[in-house]
Give the backbone structure.
Amino acid sequence: MGPPNPDQEVKDIDMKNYSSSISGFILLGISSNPQMQKPLFAVFLIMYLITLVGNGLIIMAIHSDSRLHTPMYFFLSNLSFMDICFTTVIVPNMLVNLLSETKFISYVGCLVQMYFSMALGNTDSYLLASMAIDRLVAICNPFHYGVVMSPRRCLLLLLGSCTISHLHSMLRVLLMSRLSFCASHVIKHFFCDTQPVLKLSCSDTSASQMVVMTETLAVIATPFLCILFSYLRIIVTVLQIPSAAGKWKAFSTCGSHLTVVAFFYGSVIYVYFRPLSMYSVVKGRVATVMYTIVTPMLNPFIYSLRNKDMKRGLRKLRGRIHS
């Protein structure tokens, strides 16, 4: 008797749970190995708690220190809030499934998770672009910084980021809700993401894939190109500064932001800008873990360890908590 066939096991589970109608999906999770479920639960629970505590401290430090009430920290506090919401949409359900035998998510629950994960993820993307614009104005046009980055304009950038992201998610979910699922209802992923769900559909997905690729390109590429343009302008301006110390000081204010951008966009581009035929389940999971769990967890450390203002704000917050 040979070793068990994972694909056959998936089919058996699928036919057992979904013989008649589509009431929901099975999320296979990070790994289908039963021995890995509890260790993975412990690892991702710790990562989730670090994300909540780290981003929560960033928000409290910024709001409690009047010297951090600037456009850059306004966007950073909102980025931290979005990161908390983003991971909360995905990780708790993933943790429950790691300890559950059924690993079930309802059809409506899947679409709701897809909607909010895309809306919050895209808002992160636009907030990173807003932060790049803030650095551009601060370095290239410092004398008009207070006028250009006024509180009203910062608020408009935030509201615009949220509105565009939610409209994008609404269109995507409406598109996905029109698909038919006839045979397999097993999602080989740890949450309801677009590509794994598209692969399950027995409808003709060519038009859906084209719309998804085009629309995703427009929504993700727009803030990415904005960031790219901003930093090209910043580099040109900084290179004109005569002193090496001045150049280093200007670049050092951008280091944290560039690190987060590299983590976030590197994994997002790998996952979403590949044809469905080239989509790899294992590689897709790893890349998705990077931008859904790892990056939100690292953001507080990236923005606080090399930032004197944030260190001062965190020390001030610690002093208030102790007193």
